[in-house]
Amino acid sequence: MATRTVTYELGTTGLDAQGNPVRVPLRAADAGEPEIPTDHMLINIGPQHPATHGVLRLVVELDGEVVKRVIPHVGYLHSGFEKLGEYRHYNQIIPLTDRTDYLAAMSNNVCLALAAEKLMGIEITPRCQVLRVIACEISRIISHLVWAGTTAIDLGAFSVFLWMFQEREKLYNLIEAWTGARLTTSVTRVGGMMADVPDGWAEQLRAWARRFPSVLDEVETMLSKNAIWLGRTVDVGVMTAEEAIDYSLSGPMLRASGVDYDVRKDRPYLGYETYDFEVPIGEHGDVYDRYLVRMEEMRQSTRILLQALDRLPDGPLNAADPRVVLPPKSRAMSDMEAMIFHFKQVMEGVAAPVGEAYMGIENPRGELGYYFVSDGTAKPVRWRIRPPAFINLGALPKMCEGHLLSDLIAINASVDIVMGEVDR
Amino acid sequence: MTTLNSSVATLQARFGESIRRAEISCGDTIVYVARERVHDVLEWLKTAPGEQYNYLTDITAVEYRDRERPIEVVYQLWSIPRRVHLRVKAELSKDLPLEVQTVTDLWSGANWMEREVWDMFGIRFTGHPDLRRILMWENYSEGHPLRKDFPLRGRFSRSEQVRQALTADLAAHYSMEELSLKEAAPLLPEEMRRRLETE
Questions:
Q1: Is B18 helix (H, G, I), strand (E, B) or coil?
Q2: Which of A33, A190, A372, B199 is the most exposed place for a label (fewest CB within 10 A)?
Q3: Which residue of chain A is at minimal alpha-carbon distance from B59?
Q4: CA distance A245 to A256
């Protein structure tokens, strides 16, 4: 990169002979004809920048205002979750999953429990299945709400952010009533759930779900045919179907490009095959189609929520397997056998059989996969997170090539990254 | 699903001895492939009309607590048209250099996945266009964190970590020239430069 040294005289005030202030104009010394550099410029964005949605650092090579090359630098939030998991019992890993994709904490909890159950061969109860579906779909809605709000802010529409966060707040109140926490929920346990929903909770969620689509209508009225929104998103950051598969994209990023792959439909878990819902598929693979796909996914998730509430069965919440499910506290304090199970589970953990299990679920950002390898002890040999945000972000350089710098902001927003998950 | 994935039989017919063994764990089929043939096997699985494993879900590695066991590189494949999952593994003996051929020419998405495996396990992917660390910083000198001989709290003491952070050559990491690697070669750490130049 060529460097150019320009010296400036300082514009200081002084007094002339008459006592009037003398102003020296601020100008470049020996300016002459301005030299316009034609070589490429490197611009650093982040790691602390509101439009990078976390501690993402992008180094951008620009030709004028056109992006020639983007080099993402990740890892600023690396916490070694996978390493930590190797030193913990399966249930002790659940709090770590809250902190990876913290916008969809409940969905991560569910995936971890499912992976551990697949490894250990545990059947869960019907009530637990339906509650987990509710947890997953609430997570999806919350995550897409944050996505829509922050992306709209990046592209200059502030009110969408307020509308979306208002709805998110109502859902967080419900989550708090259920789990006692808003973001770090740790709602599942291997073989069951941490707690059942409180009385009247289902009715509150139903009331919310009936009203919520009208908020989406408002937002779509504001954005879907808005000239500015269209100008900033249509034909920006296009990925064809072949490219999307080539880059292993998943979730709305993949489906906006027209690839019909949704883990809920293609490899159903938690009985998703019994729910009536559509998977929205885009055509053009641009930022606008990703917006449409996510908006429609919120509507479909609301449909699933209402169906799940209708069928929420009574009955036990946790699997009847004293090896893995803690006995109720009252029994642990009064019954010798229950106390022994309690003690052994807490002190020794649950030993998983030798083997390995990969469990992929459809997270808001794409296919989240937890891969456990066990050597027969209570702690996994390897806990791998297949991070959808990380893998989707890998396509950012490809999507931004040839676009304007301002489009980079729109494209980066459309990837919907959560740095907690990218860096893990 | 307790039967082997049907791709195993066709793989054995086509690649013979290179398909070391196959097994089922928790309903998923795992195929162990000789490491020299991993690229060929994956290319065939991706393109053969009857297989169509066109979606690379994940690449990762596993090291066992038993130090005698080889390190495994794990490829999770998915066929979008056929809706079938297959896990392909290559065992890398610890006596030999940890190397396997890259699959970035088959799937562009493998780029970051392989960089992460290199960063965390120290497995080199030969022919990778840009094999730099990704989650740790480039002049991180404590090794590869997910290896079993790497202590949970890191290899260096807290005071040594602080000392290294304070004496680090910030220009080598933070300057923009570092990124256009050619011009910035003299600024790069010795080890990284050697690695990039041998590619």
A1: helix
A2: A33
A3: A386
A4: 12
Task: Identify all chain A residues contacting B26, using CB atoms and an 8 Å cutoff.
Answer: 118-119, 121, 355-357
Best residue of B30, B60, B115, B150 to probe chain A, by most A CBs closer than 10 Å: B60
> How far apart are the C-alpha atoms of A418 and A279, rounded to whole Å?
23
Mean pLDDT of B152-170: 79
Q: What integer pLDDT is reported at residue B177 of this predicted model? A: 42
pTM for the whole structure: 0.84
Q: Which ranges in chain B belong to alpha helices (H)?
A: 7-15, 38-47, 110-121, 158-167, 170-174, 190-198
Q: Is the dihedral of CA B71, B146, A424, A353 positive or negative?
A: positive
Q: Which residues of chain A have a CB within 8 Å of the CB of B179?
A: 42, 59, 71
B136 Cβ under 8 Å from any chain A Cβ: yes
Low-confidence ranges of chain A (pLDDT < 50): 8-12
Do B88 and B31 touch, CB atoms closer than 8 A? yes
What rounded mean pLDDT belongs to chain B?
83
Look at residue B196 in the predicted model and tell me its pLDDT: 62
A40 to chain B: closest CA residue: B180
Q: What is the pLDDT of residue B55?
A: 92
Beta bridge partners of B89: B32, B74
Cα of A14 to nearest chain B Cα, Å = 40
Over residues B41-86, the pLDDT tens digits come to 999 999 988 888 999 999 999 999 988 899 999 999 999 998 999 9
Q: Which of A183, A42, A50 is nearest to A109 (CA)?
A: A183
Which whole-number Å values give the CA distances from A288 to A92, A258, A280, B17, in the listed order? 40, 13, 13, 50
Please answer yes or no on whether A119 and B26 come within 8 Å at the CB atom. yes
Which among A20, A23, A6, A77 has a CA at the least distance from the CA of A420?
Answer: A77
